[in-house]
Every structure is written in structure tokens, then in C-alpha cells.
């Protein structure tokens, strides 16, 4: 073979045909010999080898497939044939019926389109059909190892003519796509809707619908798109995975949250988009904090701030997550520094989270996070001011924009702030209405806060007070009943 011919390439196949012709193989036998060489010598899987041996592009193979079925509109696409060729490592398993049609297109038997690796993954029914079919599983006999010198010379001339011959066809493939703007708009619209619905819908329901979007996106990515469409799909994959991680954390499924955030980060790496990296770092920081890894949470949030995108609206959740992370280890200096940076950019007029109501948290949640961090480092009075602002902002929100978990969280932490200020009656006034009304099913962090306040009421400062003991018992009962 000429040094210019890459194994399996079109010039390589042209040279191989020249060699086989020179050896006296009839024209109808040459495709089988080419396919065998591609499988044995070039390690190309059988379905791809036979298509290349037939000199068919994916789209032409799909067209001929539809013609064989007698319906040009049968729906076979080049992208689906490519998926068949990727199986079993990835892609889609072809049915026996599909293999029979492809075999007709390529002029072989369907058994020749399956290798040992394929057979090991076939369902038992298909494997039984394979063995029951009397057609041979391999066509053609091996040719000689080396060609005569005169054949090699002719092949080299042919190879020179073939160099660059497929460039236009390859470039045209860039115009082929399995997705259109309507599909992309639908995916983004569904994500936006679910992001808004999260505040008022059962988490498991949202999680299931997000999983459908992620699976649909992953399926589309297995096909071919234009580069910009591929990036859009990667961004949808990143956002849907990060949202699922966030919600799985709310349900206390932290291991699954970490897996989903890892998937989201992988999507962002390929999408190469700074705003998407902020989404994922925000989700990672949140999950790490509630899983008990405060320092990791702070560092993830700080890293997210390195990706400059979205301005102050996307800065705020990350800065507040950084403060909250450091607060878990009572790192007062870092907490106060982060709160000061957030105060400098906080816009009181941004009350509904902007366009992205999922990651760009609402005003009530921003002030709650600030208060929670301040309370953890002993700044009870400052925390109480933030909780008061959070309560006011929460009550101004329309019902559809309220995250239901914020009411109990604000009440619990406001009560904790009163305890730090030696005001047991004030603490009771905050949480008793919540306990009287019934906590109901709540995210994992609400349960954590109920238990934390009960623990504080059971401490040396308050254990002798009857009110504190009764309140602690009621909080623990609520904690037990609030499992989502």
C-alpha cells in the first residue's frame, strides 16, 4: 500500500480494489474481499466495513435502505445507520430486521454484519435466530499478502488522483443535522418552565421531567448536528443535569447529586461556556454544603466566580454560597468578607431572580442565605435584620414565585437568632405558628434546620426551661414527619 493511504480510507480501498482486480477477482466478488480486509487488517467493525466496501456514504446507505423496504419515506436516516455502527460500545442495537435490509443494500448476508463482540451482546432471541439461519457468517476468501510491483505502481497513481476527492462530501456533512431550531426552543422552554415550577411542585415530579429532557438531549447528541446546535445541546445537558443534582440534594440523595453534577460539569467542559460553568458550580456548592462539606462548598463557589458571565445577578448566589460554606467552620473573616462583597452588588429591585428563576435565586432567598451565614459566626443581630428583609421579600412575592420551603427556613433561623439574643419567647413566637400548622413534607435542608434548633434548645442554656423542652420535642416530631 502507498504510504499516503491511511488504512481504511478511500485511497486505501481504491488501492485494494486495484490489487484484487490484478489478482483476477471478478468485480462482484471484490466488495466481500474489501470488507474482509477492512475487518481483519484495519480492525473496522463489520457494519462499517461492509458499507465502506460498498462505497456508500451514510446518507446514501439510508436512501437505499428506504428503497429496499419499498417506501422512500420509511424514515431510515444516515444518523441512525451511524448509531447502528457504533453498537455495542455505544449507539443503538440494530434489529435483525434492520440487519437483513442492510445486508441487501450491501450485497451480503445479515450474519456477515455481526462480529464476535456484537454476538456477545445480542439478546438470546436474536442469537438463536443467528444460529438457525443457514447462510454463512463470512463471505469471501483471503487474498495474497502482497501485490505484484506493477499493480502497486498503478495503485499509487490512483491514490494520487484520490487525494482530497472526498473533501467536499466531508464538508457537506457539516450541513446535516438531526435537530432543528424548534426542537432546541422546546428543550429550553421546558427547562425554563420546570425551573419556575420547582418552587411550587413536588421535587420528585420535577426530577422525573428533567430526566426526560436530559435523556432526549443525550440521544440527539449521538447524531450529527451543526456545531452551534451541538453546543446548544451540550448546554441543555449541563443545565438539566445541574438542576437534577440540585433537586436530588433537596431530597437527601447526595450521592446521586454528586454524580449528576459530575455529568453536568462534563457537559460544560465540551460546551466551553462560562455561564454554564456558573450553573454547575452553584449546584455543586449547594449540594456540598448540605451534605456537610462546608469548605469544599466555599471553594467550589469561589471557583465559579472565576468564570465571568451574567454580571451581578449570577455573582450573588455564588458569593453567598461561598459565605455559607465558610460559615460552617466559623471562619468569620471569610464570611464577613463575602457578605461585604455581596452587599456591594445587591440590587434590591431584582426580586424574581431575573430570567433564570432557578439559579438566580430570589431576593428573599439571597437575604436568607446572608442571615444564615452571619448567624453561624455569632452575628445574631445582623442576621436578624437579614431574616426580617427575607420575610418581607417573601411575602411580596406572588404565590407562583414563592419557594414553599423558605417560610419554615426563615421562621426557624429567625427563632435561632432570637435564642442567640437570649429571647426564648421571641424564638417560640417564630416557630410555634409553623408547628401548629404542620410542617408537611419538606426538603432535606428544612429537616436539618428543625433538628439543629431542637439541639440548640436542648443545650445547657435552655434545658431547664419548660418552654424550651416542649419546643424541642415539637421540633423533633416535626423533623420526623417532614421527610420528603
Mean pLDDT: 85
What is the tally of beta strands?
A: 0
Largest sheet: none
The CA-CA distance between the termini, in Å, is 67 Å
Question: How many separate helices?
Answer: 24
Outline type: elongated
Please give the share of residues in helix. 55-70%
List descriptors:
24 helices, mainly alpha, about 475 residues
Structure, briefly:
The chain is an all-alpha fold.
Task: Show the helix and strand layout.
Elements: H1 10-22, H2 30-40, H3 46-53, H4 58-68, H5 78-86, H6 96-106, H7 116-121, H8 124-132, H9 149-162, H10 167-172, H11 181-197, H12 203-221, H13 227-250, H14 254-271, H15 274-290, H16 294-304, H17 312-327, H18 332-345, H19 363-376, H20 380-396, H21 406-420, H22 424-437, H23 444-457, H24 466-481
Helix pairs in contact: 1-2, 1-9, 2-3, 4-5, 4-6, 11-12, 11-13, 12-13, 13-14, 13-15, 14-15, 15-16, 15-17, 16-17, 17-18, 17-19, 19-20, 19-21, 20-21, 21-22, 21-23, 22-24, 23-24
Amino acid at each position: 500500500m502507498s504510504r499516503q493511504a491511511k488504512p481504511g480510507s478511500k485511497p486505501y480501498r481504491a488501492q485494494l480494489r486495484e490489487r484484487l482486480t490484478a489478482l483476477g477477482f471478478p468485480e462482484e466478488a471484490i466488495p466481500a474481499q474489501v470488507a474482509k480486509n477492512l475487518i481483519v487488517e484495519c480492525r473496522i467493525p463489520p457494519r462499517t466495513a461492509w458499507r465502506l466496501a460498498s462505497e456508500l456514504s451514510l446518507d446514501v446507505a439510508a436512501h437505499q435502505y428506504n428503497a429496499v423496504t419499498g417506501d422512500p419515506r420509511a424514515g431510515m436516516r444516515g444518523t441512525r445507520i451511524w448509531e447502528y455502527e457504533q453498537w455495542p460500545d455505544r449507539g443503538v442495537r440494530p434489529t435483525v430486521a434492520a440487519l437483513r435490509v442492510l445486508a441487501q443494500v450491501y450485497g451480503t448476508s445479515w450474519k456477515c454484519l455481526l462480529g464476535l463482540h456484537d454476538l456477545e451482546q445480542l439478546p438470546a432471541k436474536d442469537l438463536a435466530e443467528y444460529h438457525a439461519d443457514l447462510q454463512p457468517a463470512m463471505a469471501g476468501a483471503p487474498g495474497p499478502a502482497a501485490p505484484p510491483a506493477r499493480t502497486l505502481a498503478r495503485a499509487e497513481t490512483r491514490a494520487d488522483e484520490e487525494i482530497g476527492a472526498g473533501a467536499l462530501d466531508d464538508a457537506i456533512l457539516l450541513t446535516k443535522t438531526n435537530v432543528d431550531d424548534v426542537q432546541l426552543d422546546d428543550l429550553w422552554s421546558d427547562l425554563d418552565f420546570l425551573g419556575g415550577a420547582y418552587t411550587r411542585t413536588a421535587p420528585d415530579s420535577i426530577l422525573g421531567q428533567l430526566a426526560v429532557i436530559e435523556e432526549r438531549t443525550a440521544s440527539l447528541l449521538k447524531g450529527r448536528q451543526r456545531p452551534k446546535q451541538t453546543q446548544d445541546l451540550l448546554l441543555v445537558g449541563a443545565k438539566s443535569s445541574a438542576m437534577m443534582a440540585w433537586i436530588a440534594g433537596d431530597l437527601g440523595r447526595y450521592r446521586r447529586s454528586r454524580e449528576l453534577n459530575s455529568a453536568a460539569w462534563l457537559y460544560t467542559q465540551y460546551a466551553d461556556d462560562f455561564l454554564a460553568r456558573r450553573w454547575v458550580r452553584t449546584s455543586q456548592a449547594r449540594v456540598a454544603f448540605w451534605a456537610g462539606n462546608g469548605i469544599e462548598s466555599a471553594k467550589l463557589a469561589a471557583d465559579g466566580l472565576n468564570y465571568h458571565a451574567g454580571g451581578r445577578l449570577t455573582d450573588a448566589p455564588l458569593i453567598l454560597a461561598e459565605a455559607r460554606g465558610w460559615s460552617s467552620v466559623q471562619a468569620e473573616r471569610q464570611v464577613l468578607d463575602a457578605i461585604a462583597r455581596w452587599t456591594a452588588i445587591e440590587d434590591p429591585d431584582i426580586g424574581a431572580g431575573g430570567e433564570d428563576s432557578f439559579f438566580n435565586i430570589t431576593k428573599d432567598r439571597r437575604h436568607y442565605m446572608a442571615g444564615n451565614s452571619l448567624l453561624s459566626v455569632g452575628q445574631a443581630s445582623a442576621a436578624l435584620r437579614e431574616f426580617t428583609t427575607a420575610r418581607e421579600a417573601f411575602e411580596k412575592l406572588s404565590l407562583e414565585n414563592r419557594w414553599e420551603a423558605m417560610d419554615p427556613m426563615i421562621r426557624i433561623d429567625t427563632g435561632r437568632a432570637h435564642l442567640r439574643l437570649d429571647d426564648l419567647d421571641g424564638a417560640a413566637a417564630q416557630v410555634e405558628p409553623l408547628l401548629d400548622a404542620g410542617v408537611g413534607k419538606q426538603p432535606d435542608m428544612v429537616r436539618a434546620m428543625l433538628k439543629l434548633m431542637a439541639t440548640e434548645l436542648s443545650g445547657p442554656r435552655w434545658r431547664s426551661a419548660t418552654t424550651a423542652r416542649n419546643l424541642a420535642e415539637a421540633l423533633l416530631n416535626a423533623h420526623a414527619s417532614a421527610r420528603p
